[in-house]
Amino acid sequence: MIKTIISEGLPVDEQLIIRKNTIQHGNGTKRICIVTGTHGDELEGQYVCFELIRRLNESIEHLNGTVEVYPALNPLGVDSVSRGIPTFDLDMNRIFPGDPNGHLIEYTAFKIVEDLKGADMVIDIHASNIFLREMPQARINVQTSRKLIPFAKMLNIDFIWIHDAATVLEATLAYSLNALKTPTIVVEMGIGMRITRTYGNRLVDGIFNMMRKMDMWHGAALKNISKPTVSTKGEVHFLNAEFSGIIIPSVSHSDIVKKGDLLCQIVDSYQGVILQNVFSPVDGLLFTLRTYPVVYEGSLLARIYSETTEK
Amino acid sequence: MTEEILFTLKSPYRDDFKIRGFRFGCGEKSVAIVGAMRGNEVQQQFTCSQVVKNLLAIEKAGKLIPGHEILIIPSANHFSMNINKRFWAMDNTDINRMFPGYDKGETTQRIAAAIFENVRGYKYGIQLASFYMPGDFIPHVRMMDTGFQNVKLAKKFGLPFVMIRKPLPYDTAVLNYNWQVFDTQAFSIYSGDTDIINKDTAKMAWLSILRFLHNMKIIDNTMHEGYTSCVIKDANLETIISNQSGILYGLRGANDEVKKGDILAKILDPFTGEVRSEIISPLDGTIFFAHQKPLVHHNTVMFKIVRF
Prior knowledge:
heterodimer, A: alpha/beta, Aminopeptidase, CATH 2.40.50.100, 13-stranded mixed sheet, four-stranded antiparallel sheet, globular, B: alpha/beta, 2 domains, 6 helices
C-alpha cells in the first residue's frame, strides 16, 4: 500500500510528496525499512526498491512482518538530476534529525525520522556520487558496530567499513536513527547517475537473507551469501591527486592490487605529459575508484583496504 | 600593508586558484578577517573589500596602533563566484563545512586547511557569514554557545543585536566553531544580504568591524559608538511558519517594529492572485529575519520576531 508521509505545498500548483510502499503480511511484528534517494543523483537504490517489491509481491505468502520501501526521500532532486534539494542549500543528509519548526526541508527530515523511528532495521542505500565507484559495502559507526555488524554480514556485500567516532557525521539519517535506538546500516554501492544491476540483485538477495534470519521471511533466499571483509582487521588507505589534470585509469574497480601497481596516471592534455603516476602504497582491495576523469589537486582517486598495516 | 598569496591550486584548464591575504601592521596576531567562502557571498566580499580600503587609509594616516597584526582574506572561493555557483566549482562541496581542514585530503579540505593554517592563532577571528535560508536579517553578530564565547566582546561591534545560538551537529566543521576550539574569540557578522550588494547594510558591517578594532585598541579610529547591542538567544525569537504556498507579497521586512495583529505578508494564489493566507504577527516585537524570495513553500520559516 502506498502511503504519503509528507505532502507540503510548493509555490505553484505542486506538492512536495514523499511516499513509501508498505508491504505487510502475516502476524509478525518485525518491521524493516529500505530508504534511498536522499541524494538525487544516487540511483542504485531505485533498482533495489523495484526488485525487492517485485519479489515480495510474487511470494507475499512467505512474508511474516512489514517491509516499508522509501524510494525517494528527495523526490525533487531525483526527478531533476540534482544531488541536493533544489532551492535548498544544505545537503539533505546533513540536516537530520530535522526540526519541526525549521525550513520545509528540515521539517521534512523531522517527519522522515518520526516515520522510520522504531523499525527493527533500516537499510539506507547510497550510491557514492558521480565521481567515485564503490563496491557493495556497509558503513558503520564504531559505536554501533557490535550490534550492526552481524546484520551487515547478512546483506551479501563485499566489505564492512567501520568508521572511527571522530570521522562520523552526526547530522546524517543513519546517525540520527541509531541515536534513537533504531538500528540503521548505510549501504554504499555503485556510482551516481547509474544503475548496476548485479550490485542491486546482490543486495536484494542480502535483504531477503536478513529477513529470513529475522524470522520475517520463510520463502526462498540465496544460501551462498558473500562473506564481507571487515575493516577492523586492517587499514583503509586514501589516495588523493597531487596534481590537477585528467586521470587515465590503469586498473579496474574491485581489483586486488599489489604495492607498487600503477593505478592511474594524471596527465596534462595540453602538453601530452604525465603529471603523476599513482601507485598503490600497499597490497589490498581497491574498493573505491574514481571514474570521473577531471581532477583537482586533492581529489580522491581511490581507497584501498589493506590487512597488513604499513609501519 | 603587504599583499600575499596564501594558497595556490592549479586547475586543469582554468587559471590558477589563489587565496590572497592582506596583512596590516606587525606584532601580536590580533585579528583575522575572512570574507566570502561561498560563491554567492558578494555582499561579504564587498564588505571585506571596504574594510581593506578603510584600513589602507588608516595605515596611511599612521593610525594603526603598533604591535598588532591584522590579516584579511576577502575571498576564498572566487572560483565558484566567477561562474555563479555557491559551492566549490568542481564537486559542489562547502568549504565552510571542512574546517579545520586536512592538507592531505580532498580539494576543499585542503583549501580549508590552508585558510585555517593562516587564520588560526589570532586573538580575534571575524567571519562575514551568510545564512542558508533566503531572506533578510537585521545586521548582527552571531556567536556559538560553546562555553568559550565572550558576549561582552561581541557588543564592541556596536551592531543592533548579538545572537547566541547552540551549535548544531554540522557546526563542528565550520570556521567559527574551530576558531573557538583553537582559542580564538570568534564572531560571525551577518550583514543581512548575500548575493546582492546592499550598500547600507554592508556599511553597517564594515563600520562595525572598524569600531571593534578601535575598541580593542588595534587601530586609532574614533567613531560613533553604534548601538547598545541587544543580546538574544533562539528562545527570544518567535518563528512564524507559512501555512500556504504561493507568491509572497511582503509588507514588512527585517528591522521593522511590529504590533500583535499586524499583517506582515500575504501569500497569493499564483494563478488568480487571490490572497491564500495573511501572515499575522502574533506579538509585539522587532522583525529579526524576513523571508524575501518571491515564491514561498508551505510550512517554511517566514519571519523570526524578537520577543521583548
